[in-house]
Specification:
Number of domains: 2
CATH topology of the largest domain: Rossmann fold
CATH class of the largest domain: Alpha Beta
Mean pLDDT: 92
Largest sheet: 8 strands, antiparallel
Strand content: 25-35%
Low-confidence stretches: 268-272
Number of helices: 6
CATH architecture of the largest domain: 3-Layer(aba) Sandwich
Order of helices and strands: EHEHEEEHEHEEEEHEEEEHE
Number of strands: 15
Radius of gyration: 21 Å
CATH superfamily of the largest domain: S-adenosyl-l-methionine hydroxide adenosyltransferase, N-terminal
Length: 272
């Protein structure tokens, strides 16, 4: 795989501390020509599943050969392994804690490497900052074309976190909120492919919390300002939103990641 020279960073570090800058400094000291892109550093602290979702949503929009570094690592310094994952002509570098589960499970035979060759790490390793001392230098070396199979040994048992998938319950499709974005949109795990099982001509109910919606809107502006709607967002997933508002704040204060979302073909009462 030919590297693109691009390295992305996705972390839960926030932006008030120097941690992200330190990682960038390490990368640039190894590969001064690297192009470093911040996907986000606002993953909720320790939210491995949300970090994985963000990386999965984003990675394919980068050129083949891009190195994606993910650091949501509450178990840093413990027994979890540092790994590299090779999927779809991309590199993924981070902790073996389930962060890359959704990416790995999309492939029949992904290459997962336990990173053990310390010559590709920093000389001194902090037990609390593998993002800087392990993942950043490994990513930089990969961006220069180092063979990832020289960095460790292939494994077949990476840690897996099961992703929530929609399921049928009689005539209902039951999903859940998996992410709340910056705008307060409630993003679900129900995709357009799932919804295609529910012909719109027969009527549609979408229920989340105390809110009931009866159609899929094409755009946010399909409803008046301040009104709720359901639509298919840019990630091809069903979203609950408010035009010029926040569904999280304005509609469903009790809604959170894991809250159930029910889709039904015919008009009827839905008990949650």
């Amino acid at each position: 795989m030919k590297p693109s020279g691009i390295i992305t960073l996705t972390t839960d570090f926030g932006e008030s501390d120097p941690y992200v800058a330190m990682m960038k400094g390490v990368i640039l000291s190894i590969n001064p020509d690297a192009k470093i892109i911040d996907i986000t550093h606002q993953i909720p602290a320790g939210s491995i599943q949300e970090g994985g979702l963000i990386i999965k949503e984003s990675y394919k929009y980068f050129p083949s050969g891009t190195v994606h570094i993910g650091v949501v690592d509450p178990g840093v310094g413990g027994k979890r392994r540092p790994i590299a994952v090779l999927v779809d002509n991309y590199f993924f570098i981070g902790p073996d804690n389930g962060l890359f589960s959704t990416i790995i499970e999309s492939q029949r035979h992904p290459d997962v490497i336990h990173l053990k060759e310390t010559k590709y790490w920093m000389p001194n390793i902090s037990s609390t900052f593998h993002g800087r001392d392990v993942f950043a230098p490994v990513g930089a070396h990969l961006s220069l074309g180092v063979n990832p199979f020289l960095m460790g040994e292939k494994i077949v048992n990476p840690i897996h976190i099961a992703s929530p998938h929609p399921h049928k319950n009689n005539s209902d499709l039951v999903g859940e909120i998996i992410r709340v974005d910056h705008f307060g949109n409630l993003i679900t795990n129900i995709t357009w492919e799932h919804l295609s099982q529910f012909p719109m001509s027969k009527g549609l109910i979408i229920k989340v919390g105390s809110l009931t919606l009866t159609k899929i809107s094409p755009t946010y502006s399909d409803v008046p300002e301040g009104q709720p709607l359901a639509l298919i967002g840019s990630s091809d997933a069903l979203e609950i939103a408010v035009n010029m508002g926040s569904a999280e704040k304005d509609l469903c204060e009790k809604c959170k990641i894991g809250t159930r979302v029910i889709v039904r073909r015919h008009y009827a009462n839905i008990e949650l």
